[in-house]
Records
---
Amino acid sequence: MLTQPDSLLKYIEDASGLRLPDGHFIDGGFRAPRAGRSMQSEDPGRGEAFADFARGDADDVADAVASSRQAFNTVWLRTPPAERGRILARTADLIRRNTERLAIAECLDSGKPIAEARGDVSGAARTFEYYAGACDKLEGHVFPLPSEYVGYSQFEPVGVTAHIIPWNFPISTAARGMAPALAAGCTVVAKPAEQTPFTGLLLAELLVEAGLPAGVCNVVTGTGIEVGAPLVAHTGIDHVTFTGSVATGTSVMHACAENVTRSVMELGGKSPVVVLNDCDFDSAIANVAGAIFEHAGQICSAGSRLVIEAGIHDRFVEALGKKASSISLGHGLRSPGMGPVNSALQRDKVLGFLDRARERGAEFVCGGHASTDPETGKGYFVEPTIVADRQADDELVQEEIFGPVLTVQKADDAEHALHLANCTRFGLVAGVFTGNFSRAHQLARDVDAGQVYINEYFAGGVEVPFGGNKQSGFGREKGLEGLKSYCKVKSIAARIG
């Protein structure tokens, strides 16, 4: 395992050491794009390109969909569930054996610290492991009909599934969609974000190494316009799983509606972390900081709003500001406290929110400016930022910033905190920190969110269903609910006497 900075940083100078993929992954192997075009992937920690990858188009999408349709009809649909499970289990093992290669590729592509990237790879392995065990446990039901009838249901795979993978958690989100789809008996066509193409391609390669038949998982890289749009609009797609912005998700839903294509939409959030007077103070500080500054706040479920009860407001915000100010910045391969945001575009978007907040007279507890890697003077960095008390209608409260920016909302009491927690159009997750068990579960009951963490932000794992309410989307991923997203139910009733 590479641990020394000099050893790690040689990969910045020589990305070929990673054996990065060349081409799309179609029909069991890498293939050059039909138009022969390529794009460059940037290392956000330096703000410089480090590798080329295939720039696909609708013709490449058509090839991938045809390959997946053929594989579904002739091979994967007929593969016994137990054998599907064995292939997914071998994939989990191969992911673990390739942890360092995958993590370094993820770090260079996305900018996140190497420790976070390793955690994502570990989570991807666990996801395949979990769904490997579920393949042969998709059981239907028997209906209580009169004695002269028998009625039962069975789960069937929906068919060819499309997966639009975001740039913030490329391997995690790919695994979160691919693994249950494959477990259910579906085939996959995945489109990684153009900013982070490589781990999706590497994952497809490992699946085939584990024994997945050719064509069952295809990956096409390129832009959203040239690859993503024709993929979700393709008449050969039976289901779309999309993770991304509300605006793009709305466009995807329109495309799905044209063909009456099923979909799961995870569209981001503006998640509140409710901290009450009787919380474990030190634990809450650590969790609130982790909820917003992990991966520089570029997490759909980031705790981007601190809803803090008045009794501890001043002391808590002061301590949190000191903790945020102590976070080190740097290139992900140097194991900093926080890495860069993903691109110059994302950095400028975040800074735009902060500049407008200054114009409105906002008070900054800490941060609020662009920065760079202190060792190189390069990269797309934003300081860990906390903005003091803002009203419910403020832009920083209402809009998803997708950066290391925490907005504080002061609550009079627990009831007021609930009102503030529910004050946005999003409803992905929420956190609650309190020593009162009853109050914690009352808030969990009443907050409008798809998932609630109590006394530990990001608690749980692949076993826990994940998804949002309101404009955070619909449908659920992870857990057995995620498996059902890739199934259709057939009911059968027969007269027997």
---
Amino acid sequence: MLEPVGLDEGAERAYRLLLHRLGLSPQELADAHDLTAHQARQSLDRLVASGLATVTGRPARYTAIDPRHGLTALIRARQAELDAATTALESYAAEYHERVLRADPRRLVEVIEGPAAVADRLRDLVVGAEQEILAFDTPPYLTVPSSMAGMERDALARGVTVRAVYAAEVLRLPGRAEPVKELAALGEQARVVPRVPLKMVMADRRAAMIPLTSNEESVRTAAVLVRQSRLCDALVELFEAKWFQGAPVFAPAPTTDRPDLSPAEQALLSLLNSGFKDEAIARQLGVSERTLRRRTAELVERLGATSRFQAGAQAVRRGWV
């Protein structure tokens, strides 16, 4: 039972006996477990070295330390060693990966051709993600990628963090905003920016798939898979820069107490803060543009602002969005 913290079976048997004695000599341990005196002393000295026992007097007698202190300290020390080994693992893996890339640079970027092949590799990428998925989303679209939404739902369900940056144009297209809203409700962290530089899906910051061109006819028929490298690191930095610039969209309402703010006003504030045009906001809320302008004016007045921009700033300061 104590092998994971570095104690063999003999040391553990000695420790169990020691817990039931006020003091134990090597000869007493040898008699109890049919050991030589040398074997018994080795087991007891191993307990002392591990911080689980003390030794005093001549002839030597060994006494157990409270397991809540001794074993806890030993477990923490072993955990620290494992953490250090984990850190070293990343370093060794990076060295190995660099050597592989030098030997065969084609492993850095793989060109994937054909809609079926692209779809299969994208599925492998998303299904294989263990910690995080980063995504840029922007038109053009040839078909509605319903399978991608399903894969993302599965990733969210197994605890994978998903962050997506959408081009504003995406949420203005018919049928595109609602799936984004549904995914946000499931845990996707979504932000919107005026435009994104490319379409991309990245898993665990180690591999990213992007279309080979932005041409509408080839956007889903040819792609490149970029594996862990400085190029992949640069894509991460590009994503983080756009993420920082983006406005949250369809995010859960903050928990700050807002007794005078209705759910409809909360939704309106979120959409205004995301930079949507009136037409898109009205469509999302299911109201006419005339009604939207009236509600916006009322909200601006209630916030004591003189413009929509000031209203957004006031809402951010109050923690409403």
---
Amino acid sequence: MNTRLDTSPAGTSNARSLARRVLAQGRYETVTALRNGEQLLISLILPVMALFGVVWAGLLDRPDVDGVDVAVPGVLALAVLSSALTGQGIATGFDRRYGVLAYLSTTPLGPAGLILGKAVAVLSVLVLQVVVIGGVGLALGWRPDPAGIPAALLFFLAGAAAFTAIGLFIAGTARPEATLALTNLMWVLLGAVGGVVFPLPESGWLAGLGVVLPSAALGDGLRAALGAGALDVGALLTLIAWAALATAGALRWFKWR
């Protein structure tokens, strides 16, 4: 009988095991989200409706700027909020109520693995959102700058990490009913006046919010990337800071039951 000696370091083996668990959790979360009609409504249908409404009403049209070129990056940012903040927050809150998270707490997944697995699911759903919303935008006349695609990918990753962590922090510390109300309220407020779909003014007190709000950072970053092919470093750092703080908070105060 042939035997094979495993000479790989224990740390490498543990890392591979964690990666497999995270990917398995990510696949489960993705399939669950795609089968859930309410999450599809929040993650895909409402952002597409918002895009049609903003473009057809000409709310972002300017003499020197075609409104669709501003609207599509903003709606893509709204899609990140929909799947990461609202979708994952609500799903996690009710998983916690029904004991699903209590079961997961007995597995090797752990809080960090849960957060990473949900981030994988958000990114998987986001691929579908980008394809659908981007396709609708192209049909409406959107012409993104190809040079900004790498920067846009960075913002999608940072935005998914930040808002997934924020959603999990809320779901892990509040009651499911409060999570449902709070995440939906945040989706509406941030989408309308948080710099996501509609850019914040460059002067006044609202301009100051644009420096600290993760929603404004995501919206501004995607508009700069896909509209001008530029990387907004300040906005990216804001998102990374929010991702780090919310992840630390979720790991510290997340309640499995």
